Automatic annotation (TrEMBL), chain A:
Membrane-related topology note: Multi-pass membrane protein
Name this polypeptide is given: NADH-ubiquinone oxidoreductase chain 6
PANTHER family the record matches: NADH UBIQUINONE OXIDOREDUCTASE SUBUNIT ND6 (PTHR11435), NADH-UBIQUINONE OXIDOREDUCTASE CHAIN 6 (PTHR11435:SF1)
Compartments where located: Mitochondrion membrane
Gene: ND6
Keywords carried by this UniProt record: Electron transport, Membrane, Mitochondrion, NAD, Respiratory chain, Signal, Translocase, Transmembrane, Transmembrane helix, Transport, Ubiquinone
InterPro entries named among the record's database cross-references: ComplexI_Subunit6 (IPR050269), NADH_UbQ/plastoQ_OxRdtase_su6 (IPR001457), Nuo/plastoQ_OxRdtase_6_NuoJ (IPR042106)
Organism: Lates calcarifer (Barramundi)
Position of the signal peptide: 1-20
EC number from the UniProt entry: 7.1.1.2
Molecular function as annotated in GO: NADH dehydrogenase (ubiquinone) activity
From TrEMBL, chain B:
GO molecular function, one term: NADH dehydrogenase (ubiquinone) activity
GO CC term (a single one): mitochondrial inner membrane
One Pfam family here: Proton_antipo_M
Role played: Core subunit of the mitochondrial membrane respiratory chain NADH dehydrogenase (Complex I) which catalyzes electron transfer from NADH through the respiratory chain, using ubiquinone as an electron acceptor. Essential for the catalytic activity and assembly of complex I.
Record field: transmembrane: 57-80, 92-110, 151-170, 177-193, 199-218, 238-256, 276-295, 325-346
Name the UniProt record assigns to this protein: NADH-ubiquinone oxidoreductase chain 2
Location(s), subcellular: Mitochondrion inner membrane
EC identifiers of the protein: 7.1.1.2
Primary location recorded for the protein, binned into one broad class: mitochondrion
Organism ancestry: Eukaryota, Metazoa, Chordata, Craniata, Vertebrata
Species annotation: Lates calcarifer (Barramundi)
Keyword match Metal-binding: no
Domain NADH:quinone oxidoreductase/Mrp antiporter transmembrane per the UniProt entry, residue ranges: 23-287
Catalysed conversion reaction: a ubiquinone + NADH + 5 H(+)(in) = a ubiquinol + NAD(+) + 4 H(+)(out)
Length: 173, 348
């Protein structure tokens, strides 16, 4: 289990480097898919399957799909994948940075600090992840309303920014 | 802009600041700051020219970085201390990181480079909202945390007053001058934050009043550079004679309002046995005073050449509502005798 968690986190960092190394947007979206998938794996391994499912469905299946379609509309004739020279330079720099960070900050294997969400399985009636969602709908009701309102505000912001085709704020529309 | 969208965005601005004011949980405070950032983005691009869009992009990137740093520091604090309470931050690492994140949000040196360029790309009204309202929420958070290291706030403050004074010296564009003046005033606020939060709040409120007056004067005269300011005296001669007082109040000269925060800060620093720091800061204020004096010189103390038709605008009445300008001008000139009441009012 520990080894699987290590593999998942390794692929997580690889995916992050793939996103940050500045390829064309649809390749970066592929990196984001890998990152989100590995993150879901970490969540499942630590006892939060509900949150992992929500992340998969909403983030990967909703938002990233919409982003991939929008990025495909902005396709360019010579996209930069991870074989082109500037992207490779970025990737190498970020990998070196990760290794340096590990050497400076890491060293000890922190397996004992990886507690899982259901460590209180025998002592608590509520699971960590589902109990948090339930709290969001009960005591955190006001925060839920504000979060929903903020999403509506974001919709108006985006619509206002892209209004007017090329006479508006964004000439590329 | 569509009035319904405008109302929604302004409501979002108010809601964001209110949420940050009333929160004791870091996540909710972060939410308020993000709502503020989101809501002001379309307001910045409402005049759809590329310079405004460039300024909006720069603003969004810096504010998003600062908010991400804030969220990272809050989660680190939650991990290290087990709680999310704003006023109970004890570990030095997240505290320092939050101070740096809020300094980036507000535009303190050495994280100030975005502020002059962003303000230059905006209309004067939107620049006014950016310089005044958007500073309230981060300061509400800064007033509540106890810094771990005494030197970080002093370094931020002294660098900001120096950069604000020095950077504003070579500017002819009024919005960039006001940006550097903002940096300098924020530096004064940070210097005294750990010794007396009351004086920080007092400095913030007086700065908001003085900069509101200045922005509104420039808006009335439709002046965005010193050359236009120099020939604008014919539009409102009465206001032209008052504007040097507003500018000198920004510069901190007695007996105007702007002297009050500087006096109290220097006194408190001396009481805390930091007389060298007080002297250095007072000297950096001289740099800012120079460009305020240059603006007064160009606007009111000298008459620049113009056509004969330039002498007639005062005959037409202006369509801009003058009540906010009147209120803020009065308060930014005459508030010094109320210093004891202000100190009592702003004690948290």
């Amino acid at each position: 289990m520990c080894f699987i968690m290590y593999l998942i986190l390794f692929c997580f960092v690889l995916g992050l480097v793939a996103v940050a190394s500045n390829p064309s947007p649809y390749f970066a979206a592929l990196g984001l898919v890998v990152v989100a998938g590995m993150g879901c794996g970490v969540l499942v391994g630590h006892g939060g399957p509900f949150l992992s499912l929500v992340l998969f469905l909403i983030y990967l299946g909703g938002m990233l799909v919409v982003f991939a379609y929008s990025a495909a509309l902005a396709a360019e004739p010579y996209p930069e994948a991870w074989g082109s020279w500037p992207v490779v330079v970025h990737m190498v720099v970020y990998m070196v940075g990760v290794v340096l960070a590990f050497v400076v900050f890491g060293g000890v294997w922190y397996e004992f600090s990886w507690v899982s969400v259901d460590e209180l399985g025998e002592f608590s009636v509520f699971r960590g992840d589902v109990g948090g969602v339930a709290l969001m709908y009960s005591s955190g009701g006001w925060m839920l309303i504000i979060s929903g309102w903020v999403l509506l505000l974001t919709l108006f912001v985006v619509l206002e920014l892209t209004r007017g085709l090329s006479r508006g704020a964004l000439r590329a529309v | 802009m569509n009035p319904y969208v405008l109302i929604t965005l302004l409501f979002g601005l108010g809601l964001g600041t209110t949420i940050t004011f009333t929160s004791s949980h870091w996540l909710l405070a972060w939410m308020g700051l993000e709502i503020n950032t989101l809501a002001i983005i379309p307001l910045m691009t409402q005049h759809h020219h590329p310079r405004a869009v460039e300024a909006t992009t720069k603003y969004f990137l810096t504010q998003a970085t600062a908010a991400a740093m804030l969220l990272f520091a809050s989660t680190t604090n939650a991990w290290l201390t087990g709680q999310w309470e704003i006023q109970q931050m004890t570990h030095p690492f997240p505290t320092t990181m939050i101070i740096l994140a809020l300094a980036l949000k507000v535009g303190l040196a050495p994280m100030h480079s975005w502020l002059p360029e962003v303000l230059q790309g905006l209309s004067l009204t939107t620049g006014l909202i950016l310089s005044t309202w958007q500073k309230l929420a981060p300061f509400a958070l800064l007033l509540q945390i106890q810094p771990a290291d005494p030197f970080i706030l002093i370094t931020l403050g002294l660098t900001s007053t120096l950069v604000g004074g020095w950077g504003g010296l070579n500017q002819t564009q009024l919005r960039k001058i006001l940006a550097y003046s903002s940096i300098a005033h924020l530096g004064w606020m940070m210097l005294i934050l750990q010794f007396s939060p009351t004086i920080t709040l007092l400095t913030l409120i007086t700065y908001l009043l003085m900069t509101t007056s200045t922005f509104l004067v420039f808006k009335l005269n439709k002046a965005t550079n010193i050359a236009t300011l120099a020939i604008s005296w014919t539009k409102t001669p009465a206001l032209t004679s008052l504007t040097p007082l507003i500018l000198l109040s920004l510069g901190g000269l007695p007996p105007l309002t702007g002297f009050m925060p500087k006096w109290l800060i220097l006194q408190e620093l001396t009481k805390q046995d930091l007389s060298t720091l007080a002297t250095l800061t007072a000297l950096t204020a001289l740099l800012s005073l120079f460009f305020y004096l240059r603006l007064s010189y160009a606007m009111a103390l000298t008459l620049s050449p113009n056509n004969a038709t330039g002498t007639t605008p005062w005959r037409l009445s202006s369509t801009q509502s003058n009540l906010p300008l009147a209120l803020s001008t009065t308060t930014s000139i005459l508030l010094l005798p109320l210093a004891p009441a202000a100190m009592a009012l702003f004690t948290p």
